[in-house]
Amino acid sequence: QKEVEQDPGPLSVPEGAIVSLNCTYSNSAFQYFMWYRQYSRKGPELLMYTYSSGNKEDGRFTAQVDKSSKYISLFIRDSQPSDSATYLCAMKKGGNEKLTFGTGTRLTIIP
Amino acid sequence: GAVVSQHPSRVICKSGTSVKIECRSLDFQATTMFWYRQFPKKSLMLMATSNEGSKATYEQGVEKDKFLINHASLTLSTLTVTSAHPEDSSFYICSARALAGYDEQYFGPGTRLTVT
Fold first, then answer.
1. Smallest Cβ distance to A97: which of B44, B49, B109?
2. Which residues in chain B have their CB less than 8 angstroms from residue A101's CB?
3. Cβ neighbour number for residue B40 with a 10 Å cutoff
C-alpha cells in the first residue's frame, strides 16, 4: 500500500465550478500537509501549507485536513482555465524534512 | 519570492556519457537541497538530500555512484548522471530549503533528460 494515495484523474470541470481534490494517507505520523500546483514541464509551486487538522483558506483555495480519517482536500472555487494543471498533495512528519508526494491529479478547466 | 533555477532545462545525451544538471537558489541561501525524479503520470520520487559542505544522503534504491551530487556552496548543487542509459531518461527536479528550521521547499523548473 502506498503511503499517500491520490486519484490521478484526469478531471475535467467547466469554468466557474467548484473543484474538489483529495488525498488519503496511511501513516498517522504525518503532521504537515501541502498542496502543490505543477504546470506542464515546470516544477511544483506551493499553494497551501497546513499543520495538523483543520481548514485553511487563501483566496479561491481552501485546504482541509482530517487527521482522524487520514484525508486531506483542496477546494478551488470559481475555477478558471488558468487553474488547469496537475495538483500534488504532499506531507511530512514533524521534524522530518522528507516530503512524501501523491501521484498528482491532472485537472482541466473547460472554458 | 524565493527563486530556484535549473540548467539546462532539457538535455539530450548519448548512452555512456555523463551529464551535469545545476540547481541554483537565486535570491536566498539554501542550507539543504533535494533532488527528485519524476516519471510521466507518476509522483515525485526523492533521490537524495544534500546539505552544503557535506555528503548527500541517498534514498534507498538510488545508486550514489551513478547519481553524483555536489553541494559546493549555499546557492549551488549539482547532479551528475554518470554513464547514462536510456532508462535514466526522466524529468529531474531540484528543490531548496532556505534556513534551518524554516521548512518550506522551493522547487526549480526541472530538467528533461533524454538518453539516446
1. B49
2. 43-44
3. 6
Q: Which residue of B has its CA nearest to A42?
A: B109
Measure CB to CB from residue A49 to each of B95, B104, B106 and give the nearest one.
B104
Each residue of A11-56: pLDDT tens digit? Answer: 999 999 999 999 999 999 999 999 999 998 889 999 999 988 889 9
Q: How far apart are CA B88 and CA B102, in angstroms?
A: 32
Q: How far apart are CA B25 and CA B6, in angstroms?
A: 9
- Spell out, as residue ranges, where chain B has pLDDT lower than 50: none
**A98, burial (CB in 10 Å: exposed 0-12, middle 13-18, buried 19+):** exposed
Give the whole-angstrom CA distance, residue B107 versus residue B32: 12
